[in-house]
């Protein structure tokens, strides 16, 4: 075959291939808007108890990306009818009281009784970098491996207000996923106790044996938030001292305002190391639930908590929109300098800012 013939046949083949491509329908690639977020699939996954879907749903809610936040809120809205069927327990404690050890032992006992337990651990975030340790899965290694438990560290991102919003929404998702006991561990730094008290049904305070010096430094306000005081680390060599500490707290509780209407705050000893007193604490929690539901205060408290949450979110949104305006931020900076240079009083600067 000569060169001219070979060239002609190659060109004919190229033309045939081109004609075939033009004749066949082209594959249509979907644009992003053609592939919407699959709310039904995600909601079904969460409700089926899938940890993967639950984790993804929580990440959507925690994201600062506006599109992710929008998807997260729509997903939460679809799951709201399946929330509220748990008992929410807040747990705080003095430094060294062994909160994580107690939660792990308590959670293991609850799962052995057939309950599904979610642990939402509030981790302190750096006010400088925004980073947090998020080490609760390491501290609760056994519970983290338990198929009936779910542990989610929640960074505060430097703001306690973030705890109030993110933890509440995460709690609702966990309830929709079938977790019937929600444990919320606080960082134990003062204001966070009040915020967590405002999102749980029963609030526990863990203390150590030997109340003397500890009581001197403990704020009365924290004691008045507690529905139960657990004298922890009541191990064999501390058993008698723990009983003495329990008696001391019971005497003090007579003079304090009750944390929950119709419920007398309890003081109990417990040892996570030996497993003693743990089942008694759960019996106390069930007694609390029965008593408070019977009086009608359970529903009233949850409604009040939701109203408080709603109002706190209004404040958060107003601040976000106020400082989100570039001109407003510039004006704030200018007025701030005038105040620092004694050119204006603070009240005059505020008046000028809102004129």
Beta-sheet strand percentage?
5-15%
Low-confidence stretches: 21-35, 125-135, 158-162
| Overall body shape | globular
Strand order of the largest sheet: 3-2-4-1-5-6-7
The assigned structural class equals: alpha/beta
Q: What is the CATH architecture descriptor of the largest domain?
A: 3-Layer(aba) Sandwich
Number of strands: 7
Please estimate the helix content: 55-70%
Q: What is the tally of helical segments?
A: 16
* Terminal CA distance: 92 Å
Radius of gyration: 29 Å
CATH superfamily of the largest domain: P-loop containing nucleotide triphosphate hydrolases
CATH fold field value of the largest domain: Rossmann fold
The CATH class of the largest domain, by name, is Alpha Beta
Largest sheet, in brief, is: 7 strands, parallel
Order of helices and strands: HHHHEHEHHEHEHEHHEHEHHHH
Average pLDDT, rounded to a whole number, is 83
Quickly count the domains: 3
Describe this structure in words.
Mean pLDDT is 83; it is low at 21-35, 125-135 and 158-162. It is built from 16 helices and seven strands. It has helices spanning 3-23, 39-47, 51-62, 66-79, 99-112, 136-139, 141-144, 160-176, 191-197, 211-217, 220-225, 239-253, 278-295, 297-324, 326-340, 346-353; strands at 87-93, 117-123, 149-155, 181-185, 202-208, 228-232, 266-269. It folds into three domains: 38-82, Single alpha-helices involved in coiled-coils or other helix-helix interfaces (Up-down Bundle); 83-295, P-loop containing nucleotide triphosphate hydrolases (Rossmann fold, 3-Layer(aba) Sandwich); 308-353, no CATH class. The chain has a seven-stranded parallel sheet with strand order 3-2-4-1-5-6-7, sandwiched between helices.
